[in-house]
Amino acid sequence: MVEYGDIGLWEKVRRNKIAYRYILPAALLMVIVTAFPIFYEIWMSFTNFTIVNLKNPHPSIVGFSNYIKIFKNQVALENFNFLRTLLFNIFWTFANVVLHVTIGISLAVALNSPGLALKKFYRALLIIPWAVPSYISALIWRNMFDTQFGAVNQLLGKIGLPNMIPWLTNPNAPISFLSFLSYAFYACLITNVWLGFSFMMVVATGALQSIPPELYEAAKIDGVNERGQFFMITWPLIRIVMMPAIMLGIVWTFNQFNVIYLVSAGGPLGTTEILVTQSYKLVNPAGVFGIASAFGLIVFFILLGITLLTNRVTKATESVI
Amino acid sequence: MSKRVKVMSLFLAILLTVSVFAGCKKQPVEQAITITIWHAWSGSELDVLNEAIAKYNVLHPKVTINQLQVPFDQLQNKFQTEAAGGGGPDILVGPADWIGPFTTANLISPIDDYVDSSFLSHYVTGAVDQVKISGKMMAMPESTECVAMIYNKSIVTQLPATTDDLKTFADSLQSGTTYGLVYNSGFYFTAGYFFAAGMKLFDSSNNSIVAQGEGSATALTFIKNMAADKKLIVANDYGKADSMFKEGKAGIIINGPWAVGDYVTALGAQNVGVAPMPALSATGQPFAPFVNTKDLFLNANSDADHKTAAMNFIKFLVSKDIEQLLFEKAKHIPSNIDVDTSADPVIDGFKQQMKTGVSMPIITEMGQVWNPMQTAIDSVIAGKGGTPTELMQATQTSIQKGIDQARGG
């Protein structure tokens, strides 16, 4: 049999004619709904496309000026600051994923302890945050963070803590050495942790149940304490399952539009703006489609970088195990 | 192919061909047509709209009217995007300052061909003048509006004359979860104090001059002082202010006639009062809110039949009967002079406030003012961005940047 590498492209296509015919409709659809908009966006990012061009799509080519405007923060949109938004976005992702994973695994381990009563009931209860549509939870949390009437401040007041915390209205930082994090960041963080830990808990529970109990018995005989059991048996065995979930968590949180937009709307004064909410605002209300396209492409390259990086990290861990 | 299949396909082909001619009946006098209307009306306003549609359907059974409620802060953009792409509803309900951007982008069509002078003679001249751009009527005014002080008579027993009085008085009313004043810090609601302090929006060539003179900085200082008072609620949160007033937790709110219908339902007619906002203590000048019309726009994308049908419905909406309903139930201040508004204290309060108001500019440049001004207000409340004077300088630069960008700079 001839090696596939030895024959030309056309020959390859000819030999698999039927296969190409089968994928043709799907491929055409993908070209129309995916490839065309991407190339259109690349073209738009080099033009001064605004709302008036929707009816008359002949904007003038402006070269790289849209990109320069973004990096120099010269966009006519209130509180636009590209670097601050990017750094905030990275910090937001990091803070969230660390908390999701820690809380998720802790709860999973606690709920996995043998002989715990009402185990299924607790699991069902803890899965609720994940089962409720996130925009509903986000809107409820938004109301709970109201300064005068919100449940959060009322609860704090009941247990004797400061109870007039301006969660969503004060752009200043409550913790002085984290001066770039406004009150609203903590509000969004609490909301997103509440929404996100269940997923990690479910994944960790699944992984924990696949660990044979004999390993723990052997460890006990060898005199390993609980902490040692976690770091020497539990963690190495669930890591391979947790890694993809963590990668997924990073990508989800990096683009967590719902929570940011519905809880703080990027405010106050743009302090909780992440890249996706900012690009949304470039389209609505700013209506500068050219700059928005350029912004979208920049975000694409950032995400591409993160994906390549995380891919490397996952592969590295695979080779270790 | 078997013979049976051939016969079958021939039969189907004939059936298909015949069915094409099914539409070729004689046209009825009024053809069936569907009109879409987008609006941000809610509560009693929406009830009246639905009632009007039902009444219209009795008169014109072949016309279907689909109404879609869109949150106010989304409505302009939704329409702009849809209409610029060649779609959108036939009718849009919105304030007069949208006329400028919509006309520039060619999204709405003039209505002069559909209205004659005898029809227009039934409407308030000021309202009709506001919707004109270079002599062409770009919309049909439905009502006039401005913001004023709305108060709960069971909490508020006296009316403050100046902002200093207002502050002292509102402070004295605060107890538990009841507040004397919930002050919406949105620019539309606070603009009256900026103008009372002497701010001007544009020069003669429509460039921004908001930082000229001391006016705007004085107004910002006033807002800063109000926000620093923890016994008042100052927030750019319409929903919160609105529900607090409805629940009887706020004595005074600043809002427009559109909200009064719901307040009367929630608190009872005997408890709702309307009066002009107190004068600004710093300058002694009266509150000068934007006075604008709420208008019905005709989409430029609709074809001639839809435009005619849409205009017929618009004319029905602004007719004496429907505007009477809108006035009685939703407290809209009618643009139709035939509507009987005699002896209504609510309307009187707004009419009094309008005497000191300023007409809202409908030029395209106005669209660039809102967000920067809001940032200035939010910043001064948060204590960011420097002194009020520095903030206003930055705001003026920001507005001008927007204006230049919109002009293609």
Tags for this model:
heterodimer; A: 321 residues; mainly alpha; MetI-like fold; B: 409 residues; seven-stranded mixed beta sheet; five-stranded mixed beta sheet
- Described by its quaternary structure, the protein is heterodimer
N-to-C SSE series of chain B?
HEHEHEHHHEEEEHEHHEHEHEEHHEHEHH
| Number of contiguous helices of chain A | 13
Q: How many domains of chain A, as an integer? A: 2
The radius of gyration computed from the alpha-carbon positions of chain B, rounded to a whole number of angstroms, is 25 Å
Task: Look at the structure and give the mean pLDDT of chain A.
Answer: 86
* Low-pLDDT residue spans of chain A: none
Distance between the termini of chain A: 37 Å
The separation of the N and C termini of chain B measures 68 Å
The whole-number mean of residue pLDDT values of chain B reads 88
CATH superfamily of the largest domain in chain A: MetI-like
Outline of chain A: flat
Helix content of chain A: 55-70%
Characterize the main sheet of chain B: 7 strands, mixed
Helix content of chain B: 40-55%
CATH topology of the largest domain in chain A: MetI-like fold
Molecular shape of chain B: globular
Structural class of chain B: alpha/beta
Question: Can you tell me about this structure?
Answer:
The complex is a heterodimer of chains A (321) and B (409). Chain A is mainly α and 321 residues long. Chain A has 2 domains: 9-71, no CATH class; 82-314, MetI-like fold, CATH 1.10.3720. Helix content of chain A is 68%, strand content 0%. Chain A is built from 13 helices and no strands. Chain A has helices spanning 9-15, 17-44, 65-71, 82-111, 119-131, 134-144, 151-158, 183-209, 213-221, 226-254, 257-264, 275-283, 289-320. In chain A, helix 4 (82-111) runs antiparallel to helix 10, helix 8 (183-209) packs across helix 10 (226-254) and helix 10 runs antiparallel to helix 13. The longest helix of chain A has 32 residues, at 289-320. The relative contact order of chain A is 0.13. Chain B is 46% helix and 16% strand. Chain B is built from 16 helices and 14 strands. In chain B, the strands form 3 sheets. In chain B, strands 1, 2, 3, 6, 12, 13 and 14 form a 7-stranded mixed beta sheet that branches. A 5-stranded mixed beta sheet of chain B has the order 9-8-10-7-11, with helices on both faces. The termini of chain B are far apart. Mean pLDDT of chain B is 88; it is low at 23-28. The A-B interface holds A 48, 50-52, 54-55, 76-79, 146-149, 164, 169-172, 267-269, 284-285, 287-288 and B 74, 76-77, 80-81, 84-86, 104-106, 177, 179, 230, 233, 235, 240, 244, 368, 371-372, 374-375, 378-379, 381-384, 398, 401-402, 405-406, 408.
